[in-house]
Amino acid sequence: xxxxxxFRALRYNPAKVALGSVATQPYDKITPEMQAAYYEASPxxxxxxxxxxxxxxxxxxxxxxxxxxxxGAEFMExxxxxxxxxxxxxxxxxxxxxxxxxxxxxxxxxxxxALLKLEPFGTGLIFPHERTFQKYKDDRLRLMRAxxxxxxxxxxxxxxxxxxxxxxxxxxxxxxxxxMAVEALGVRHxxxxxxxxxxxxxxxxxxxxxxxxxxxxxxxxxxxxNYRDEMRPVHGEGGPYDWCMVTLFDMEDKSLVIRPTxxxxxxxxxxxxxxLRRKLEAHFTIEECRTSQIASRIRPASAEETRLVLYTxxxxxxxxxxxxxxxxxxxxxxxxxxxxxxxxxxxxxxxxLDYVLGMSREQQNQVGNLWYVAAINEGLDGVRSGxxxxxxxxxxxxxxxxxxVAASGNVMPQKSTDFYPKLLTGLVMRRITE
Length: 434
Description:
Blueprint (H helix, E strand, L loop, with lengths): L3 E2 L4 E3 L19 H10 L5 H4 L17 H14 L3 E3 L5 E10 L2 E13 L8 E2 L6 H14 L1 E2 L3 E5 L5 H12 L4 E5 L2 E8 L2 H11 L4 E5 L1 H18 L7 E8 L6 E3 L2 E4 L7 H8 L3 E7 L3 H4 L9 E5 L4 E7 L7 H6 L8 H13 L4 H4 L5 E4 L2 H9 L5 E4 L5 H9 L10 E3 L9 E2 L3
Helix pairs in contact: 3-4, 4-7
């Protein structure tokens, strides 16, 4: 069963700081430019903890000396001592709402923050849908060891066709002013504590029979499990490290938005756009389109159709429509069995990057060969600048595909989904002490 419970949150004191000056995007979405801006925004900005600056004198080999992880822990202790960070006296869950617009359409996405009892993958309770990178898990584990805290949110999905929890969250929003509100990158984020025992019990009761699917935060979830496994031999089972802070959303919510994550490739020896097109003709019908048409032309006529766009420079791109996914080479089918072949991102990684271009799994996992962007223009500019050899543009993965792949025990290539908007770090945190 999925066990959720309230917790005593660690929060910024509004009498000491303006919340908008200290909250950030998730650590893995913070660019060097954003990091610099967050540092300037406030001396108490949470970026100093979750993604602090590296110094030339840092101990890079371990945690015995000073480094950005130990400094993050020192900042937390200092801020708590100054009353800038304050731990709540009463446990609570938190109603979490994001209000935003995309292409002129307004969205209001509601979820709730709680502690979740950690379970490893493979138990039939928690399902990942993407591969992860070991170096990012190592990075987050070093931060968790130093700070003994949960900072960022793990974005998780559950299915509740009865909308019981959604109605609870709607009532809370209707009858309460949010205690935290921040505008960031065009999105309004609000949070409201939930402390009523009856409401907390009702939420926990609904969640008890749910399976949970990780939308964002795979590295953070796996790190939390790894940290728990480090703590158990020392402190025994049943400690506070058996739980982790998560934010849960109903996957039936129409305000769940997934954006595509496009791919850029570089440093491929002997890369030849003309030869690549000839090889792709065996698997795709190919049409030329202007770069200004990519967003409209890439959309498939039906859910069964797979379309990608390849750009290697100039004023036109190639619209690739898969001829027959069930007649893909056997090597591709072995890597992507069954319903995995229905995913555009699987066709790109398995058929084009691996089978046609010869990029191994290791190369696809390396930043030096593959990069990810959310905006089409960013991908076009990367190729035009000469930094990248090609850009591949995809349609977003659908929520039903995420659920089906995860439930089947398979995982998609890394960065297969981009749930929008991201959850801010710094509104609600948790010390792993209870």
